[in-house]
Amino acid sequence: MISNTRVPALFKEWQEDTVNAALREIIDRRRRAAAVTRMRAMVAEGEIDFSVIDKGDNAHQGVA
Could you tell me if 48 and 39 are in contact, meaning their C-beta atoms sit under 8 angstroms apart? Predict the structure, then answer.
């Protein structure tokens, strides 16, 4: 059985873990959004050519 003096400490640890997990999720979402923004800029500047993907995997069929 958990003593009454330990319960507030457990709750505080749980709260901190919850807040830290939420902050990590926010950071991850911002990183993904920044990556999408960078990729869009690269496509606009012609650095990435999706027409190769649109043509299919013919170029990759010989790779084992």
Answer: yes
